[in-house]
Amino acid sequence: MSDRKRSTALALASALAGSAVLLTAPAAHAAVVDVAYDCKTPIGDKSAVSPIDIKAVKEGDGYKLTMSFQKGVSSSPIELGKGAMSPSAVIVVGGAEKATVPVSGPSNPEAVPPDTPIKITDLSGTYTPRKSGKATFTAGVLTIKAMGTTTTCTPGNNPGPSLELDVTAPGGAGGPGGGDGGDSPPDTLPQTGPTDSALALGTLGGTVMLTGAAGVLWLTRRGRRARS
Q1: Helix pair 194-227, 3-23: axis angle to 10 deg
Q2: Any stretches that span the bilayer, and where are they (predicted)?
Q3: What 3 state SS string does 65-99 have?
């Protein structure tokens, strides 16, 4: 085989490796989900619907989760001064394992007028998976503390996941029937994102590329033997 043909074959092997990487990329699905909150407030029961978005970014062995509220879910009969309200919530993890992730955020950056929906700041927390596989992330209970009072808001419409993602546990622990750990107990940090996937895919791409090159070299040597 000429040098030109050998170069073309190797380039083709590399292209095929790249295609394999794209085809095997783990699926991630995000959706803005309407969550109907039933709130227990100091002035009685209230209800409100807010679209919830959950994002994940790989950080070390875990994933940083960010929960965003597109609408306020509660209000106060009196003005809340700047920094008077402190929000926190729970994200429910399903799929490869069952767990909960506490998330919290900064207090209100501006004063909130009376009888005005309170805009919840973005809440974040860390999730470290104990099992590899597909994980789902769903909005859980929201807690708002302000002026010495506590408001608890519970999703009442059984909302679906705001995020589905293939996650990798430290050490590569497998899903049910694999790995060395059981389901994470509730209220523990068992910790979303592309980095692990990118590393895994990079390794896969290298493997496919080397295999392709080896195949071309084998064919080349075989052809030379046939001609001799």
Answers
A1: 150
A2: 198-219
A3: EEEEECCCCCCCCCCECCCCEEEEEEEEEEECCCE
- Contact partners, residue 174, CB within 8 Å, separation at least 6: 131, 132, 133
The Cα-based distances of 144 to 79, 105, 120 in angstroms read 15, 11, 9
Tell me the pLDDT tens digit for each residue of 193-223.
333 332 222 222 332 222 333 333 333 344 4
CB neighbours of residue 169 within 10 Å: 23
Q: How many Cβ atoms sit within 10 Å of the Cβ of residue 155? A: 18
Bridge-based pairing of strands 149-155 and 133-146 is: antiparallel
At 150-174, the pLDDT tens digits run 999 999 999 999 999 999 998 865 5
The model's pTM is 0.63
List helix spans (H) across 45-171.
Answer: none
Write down the residue that tokens 């950056």 correspond to.
Answer: 109
Residue 173, both tokens: 């622990």
Residue 48 DSSP SS3: strand
> How far apart (Å, rounded) are the C-alpha atoms in residues 145 and 85?
6
